[in-house]
Amino acid sequence: MKWMREIARWLVAATLLGSGLAAQAAPQADYVLGVGDLVRVTVYQNPDLTLETRINEGGTISYPLLGSVKVGGLSVVAAEKKIADGLREGNYLKQPQVTILLMAVKANQVSVLGLVNKPGRYPLEAGTSKLSEVLAAAGGTVAGSASEIVVISGLRNGKPFRKEIDFPKVFASMGTVDDIPLENGDAIWVDRAPQIYIYGEVQRPGVQILLRDTTLLQALASAGGLNMRGTERGIRVHRRDESGEVKIVQPGMNDRLQPGDVVYVRESLF
């Protein structure tokens, strides 16, 4: 009788639409309920069995006729079936059509931190658990300042989990990075974009955001090019290696720069 359950779910959602709660109470059949979630339980054609309650610390709710019912850890569909089975097996109703609407999510959340437009905690609802969807809910990354590398940390199978995602590659035409699903308790960190420093005889010395695959020639162009006293000969780049030691290199114009590079443009002697 799945179709009857869906009709009941639709009717309850339609009722909530008039009160402005439909967006919060959209059906989330695959969502796993947890402690703190606010749910509304209804039984088709039995308004006296309607209950709006929050799942307690034990993962249970107190439901009319049935008493304490453990729904924490169950999907919405499984929790509906459990309550329906209890009403039927207790001879309270012959064919109960139970609908559970998720009113507010508290149990399954992730934290979004760093250079995003709206940092904070966001719920993981069914169908909205991928990295791109959560970042979209957080307003996306800060344009021109945020790194393209997104760091996800949390637990997987009880063990610490950390993964760096090259986010633009998720949507590249030949993308090699998966838009991974997030789990309860995950933290997303968006760092500041890497920078380089250009000084000496250029039009606009200073700090630049290091875009992907930026060459020395492109960086100089972003700095407005050389001024009247500058020369391409003898350009030096101060670069810190993995040991932390700073080395001076003389790159070609088409060589790629690295995060933290300091580019020095000398004055022409002639």
Molecular structure report:
16% of the residues lie in helices and 31% in strands. The chain contains four helices and 15 strands. The strands form four sheets. A five-stranded mixed β-sheet has the order 7-6-10-8-9, covered by helices on one side. A five-stranded mixed β-sheet has the order 12-11-15-13-14, covered by helices on one side. Strands 2-1-5 form a three-stranded antiparallel β-sheet, sandwiched between helices.
Give the tags:
270 residues, 15 strands, alpha+beta, five-stranded mixed β-sheet
Write the layout of secondary structure elements.
Layout: H1 2-17, E1 38-43, E2 51-54, E3 60-63, E4 67-70, H2 76-89, E5 98-104, E6 109-114, E7 120-123, H3 131-137, E8 146-156, E9 159-166, E10 187-192, E11 195-200, E12 206-209, H4 216-222, E13 236-240, E14 246-249, E15 262-265
Parallel strand pairs: 6-10, 11-15
Antiparallel strand pairs: 1-2, 1-5, 3-4, 6-7, 8-9, 8-10, 11-12, 13-14, 13-15
Give a brief rundown of this model.
The chain has 270 residues and is an alpha+beta fold.
Q: Please mark out the parts with pLDDT under 50 across 5 or more consecutive residues, or reply none.
A: 10-27
Determine the N-to-C terminus distance. 90 Å
Q: How many distinct helices?
A: 4
Number of strands: 15
Structural class: alpha+beta
**Overall morphology:** rod-shaped
Fraction of residues in H or I helices: 10-25%
Going across the biggest sheet, name each strand in turn.
7-6-10-8-9
SSE string, helix = H, strand = E? HEEEEHEEEHEEEEEHEEE
Mean pLDDT value: 87
Reported for the largest beta sheet, the result is:
5 strands, mixed
Strand content: 25-35%
Rounded to an integer in angstroms, the radius of gyration calculated over CA atoms is 28 Å
